[in-house]
Prior knowledge:
With about 120 residues, the protein is an alpha+beta fold. The chain is about 35% helix and about 25% strand. The chain has two domains: about 45 residues; about 60 residues, no CATH class. Strands 1-6-2-3-4-5 form a six-stranded antiparallel sheet, with no helix packed on it. The model has no long low-confidence stretch (mean pLDDT about 75).
Amino acid sequence: MSDYLNPDQALRLKCVELTLANVHRSASSDEVIAAADALAAFVQHGTQSPRDRINAAIDWQPIATAPRDGRKVMLAIASDPDAIETGVWAADAGRWEIARTAHGPLFLAVEPTHWADLVEGLGA
């Protein structure tokens, strides 16, 4: 089975296997519950990539509802689900600014389709 898993999934499966292998030794109820929880987590998330789990946890909103008050937000483009940027609306340019360089602002080349509040650990 591990031949068909990505590295993240294979690591989680190995952790579950090791947990289950150790359960039979002491067989305390806490260890049995922990092993069952680990297995349930693997089954639930085993087919989702880390990116899919992140996107499922984010409350994406249509770009038309995005704040244009200088607040930094996450930006997504529907045609490229792997492209998530952080940016701020640049009213003077009428575009989403994603960075400032020594030569001036850097803007998104494509209009984003969705936005979300910053998530801890993802540019917050």
